[in-house]
Amino acid sequence: METKLTIQENTVHIFAGDAKLEGNLRVPENPTGLVVFIHGSGSSRFSPRNQYVANSLNQAGLATLLFDLLTESENQVDIMTREYRFDIKLLSFRSIATLDWIKQQPFINTLPVGLFGASTGAAAALFAAQARPEAVQCVVSRGGRPDLAMPALPDVNAATLLIVGGLDYEVLKLNQLAQQAMQNRCELVVINGATHLFEEPGTLELAAKTARDWFLQTLQIKNENHSKQ
Question: Looking at residue 163, which CATH number applies to its domain?
Answer without folding.
Answer: 3.40.50.1820
